[in-house]
């Protein structure tokens, strides 16, 4: 492997992963109606989370392109001499029987519609939350996913978590709480700093420049807390998606990029089929006014082209995430995903979307630190404290078990990722693992990547 190949993969995952959230937030800030009005209060920004979810699914559908290219290339280079496939070969005497998963094909592909529905709901809720929160708070709050994945794994997958893992989940929640609280305080402080200037400007405006009558504007702290609630609630659906995917991948074999493409296809079809139904609720919320959102997107080039960029970025992020896990390790993927959150925060500060306000920003730093430590502790990337370590670590391990473990690691590194899928966390969406590496079920490392 060329020396620059791995750094290129890691850099590509970091850039594309960060750009997904940053471009989505920039898209939310675009004015789409009444943009010529001198009163900013009358400007209408692009607030269409359903259309943003559709562009995400279109990006996932682009994952079909490398699959189609590989299929066409294999047909061109197919040799006339055909060797017997491995499934027809008799295993050598004394060798261990391999557990082969049934290939996912035919009508059974529709099983992927269930995780696609969870992905649709979770992504839409997160897009709503992004409207009300700074992009760094949005990205950090998504770290709560590890909590819901862990709990649902225990309930539905009959997994066992060690004491240090439960402790790490509480640490993650403490970090998320601090991040959300600090974000609301910063937004309120920024609003108060601009309050005096706003009063002076408002005093010299004419009556017709005032915003239309209606209910009083919600305070910034309320908006941020509402956004954080939507993002946290979305993690329930995302964690459910992970559990359903693992259930499917434990029984069926499917290439990760193919599964991502199918979920993108099913998600896009669901939104298109639901459009007539959602149109009836356009008066309840502008989020469901899809015809209006269509015209806003088509008539505003910045919104349209940013949607194209987001779709391409999502597809590239899936490719880089899968490649990093396959050619390097899931640990590197987890570290890269953490750096993605940090890079989003730094870029937001550089663009002026957020401000450092001491000592309030210190709470955000502490919350981010707790979030990272809890995630690394849950994934066994850092050594747990002595009083939390499981007793099995200190017990002697029979040499036969050591040989089996080494053999399993060798098989996984060489074959499993080529023939099956791996856990959703292993291939790059979130950077969180439902289990530490030594507890993964053999033969069914299922998974997909996302945003």
UniProtKB/TrEMBL annotation:
Sorted UniProt keywords: Membrane, Transmembrane, Transmembrane helix
Chain segments annotated as transmembrane: 54-72, 110-131, 137-157, 169-186, 224-244, 256-282, 302-322, 359-382
GO CC, any one term: membrane
Principal subcellular localization: membrane
Bilayer topology term: Multi-pass membrane protein
Region called Disordered, residue ranges: 427-451
Cellular localization per UniProt: Membrane
Name recorded for this polypeptide: Integral membrane protein
Source organism (scientific name): Daedalea quercina L-15889
């Amino acid at each position: 492997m060329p020396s620059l190949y791995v750094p290129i993969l890691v850099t590509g995952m970091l850039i594309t992963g960060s750009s997904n959230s940053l471009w989505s937030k920039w898209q939310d800030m675009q004015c789409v109606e009444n943009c010529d009005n001198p009163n900013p209060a009358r400007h209408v920004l692009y607030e269409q989370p359903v259309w943003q979810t559709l562009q995400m699914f279109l990006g996932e559908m682009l994952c079909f392109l490398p699959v189609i290219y590989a299929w066409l290339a294999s047909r061109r280079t197919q040799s006339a001499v055909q060797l017997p496939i491995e499934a027809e070969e008799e295993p050598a005497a004394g060798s261990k029987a391999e557990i082969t998963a049934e290939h996912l094909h035919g009508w059974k592909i529709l099983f992927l519609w269930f995780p696609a529905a969870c992905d649709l709901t979770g992504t839409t809720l997160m897009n709503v939350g992004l409207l009300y929160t700074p992009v760094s708070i949005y990205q950090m709050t998504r770290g709560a996913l590890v909590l819901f994945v862990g709990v649902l794994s225990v309930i539905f997958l009959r997994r066992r978590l060690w004491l240090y893992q439960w402790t790490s989940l509480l640490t993650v929640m403490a970090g998320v709480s601090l991040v959300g609280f600090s974000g609301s305080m910063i937004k309120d402080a920024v609003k108060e700093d601009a309050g005096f200037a706003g009063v002076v400007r408002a005093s010299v405006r004419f009556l017709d420049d005032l915003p239309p009558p209606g209910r009083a504007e919600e305070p910034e702290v309320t908006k941020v807390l509402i956004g954080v609630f939507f993002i946290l609630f979305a993690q329930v659906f995302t964690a459910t998606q992970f559990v359903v995917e693992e259930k499917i991948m434990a029984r069926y074999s499917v290439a990760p990029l193919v599964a991502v493409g199918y979920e993108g296809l099913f998600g896009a079809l669901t939104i298109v089929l639901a459009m007539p139904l959602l149109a009836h609720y356009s008066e309840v919320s502008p989020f469901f006014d899809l015809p209006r959102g269509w015209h806003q997107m088509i008539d505003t080039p910045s919104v349209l082209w940013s949607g194209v960029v987001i779709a391409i970025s999502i597809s590239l992020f899936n490719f880089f995430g899968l490649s990093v896990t396959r050619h390097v390790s899931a640990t590197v993927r987890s570290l890269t995903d953490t750096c993605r959150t940090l890079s989003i925060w730094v870029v937001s500060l550089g663009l002026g979307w957020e401000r450092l306000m001491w000592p309030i920003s210190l709470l955000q730093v502490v919350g981010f630190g707790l979030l990272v430590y809890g995630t690394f502790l849950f994934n066994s990337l850092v050594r747990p404290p002595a009083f939390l370590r499981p007793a099995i670590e200190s017990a002697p391990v029979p040499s036969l078990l050591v040989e089996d473990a080494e053999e399993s690691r060798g098989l996984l590194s060489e074959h499993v990722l080529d023939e099956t899928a791996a856990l959703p966390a292993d291939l790059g969406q979130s950077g969180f693992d439902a289990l530490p590496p030594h507890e993964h079920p053999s033969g069914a490392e299922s998974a997909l990547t996302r945003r």
